[in-house]
Structure formats: C-alpha cells, structure tokens
Amino acid sequence: GSPVAHGFAATPAVISVLNSVLVAVIVSVAALQLRAGTALALGAGAVAFVLAMALQGWYGWRQMLSAQARVRPVFPSPEGE
C-alpha cells in the first residue's frame, strides 16, 4: 500500500479517529441536554470532531518532529563529509 494509506491505518491514526468520535458524541449529547435542536447538536458534534482531529494531528506532528530531532546516527559518515 501507499505511505498515505499506511498512515491512516496506523495505530495512532485509528486512536485519533476513535478519540475524535468520542469527543463528537460527548459534545452532541451535551448540546441535546442543553435543549439545542438536533441540527445544532449534530453541527456541534461535527465541529468538535474536526477540531479534535486537527489538534491530535498537530500534537502528533510536533511529537514526531521532536523525536526525529533527537535521533543521532550511530554509524560513521563517508569520508569527506
């Protein structure tokens, strides 16, 4: 498969989607409990899902860049470099 498909199927991506679905459900139920209409509750849930995905993606990206910056090669460089 492609690297993009692998990224979506990897465990962190699956966990991010599940977390975001849970956030969306909680926000939607809270909106319904506050007597919001169904359309508003669904809209709030959709916005919460997108925000949760974006925040988790941003956090994961920062963690990946931080981890890459800490990696030091343990083999010698070719001569002249």
Helix and strand topology:
Layout (H helix, E strand, L loop, with lengths): L2 H7 L1 H23 L4 H33 L11
Helix pairs in contact: 2-3
Using brief descriptors, characterize the structure shown.
81 residues; mainly alpha
Report on this structure.
- The structure is a single chain.
- With 81 residues, the chain is an all-alpha fold.
- It is 78% helix and 0% strand.
- 9% of the residues are buried.
Structural class: mainly alpha
Instruction: Indicate how many domains the architecture comprises.
Output: 1
User: How many alpha or pi helices?
Assistant: 3
Rounded mean pLDDT score: 90
- Major sheet: none
Summarize the structure.
This protein is an all-alpha fold. The protein is built from 3 helices and no strands. The model has no long low-confidence stretch (mean pLDDT 90).
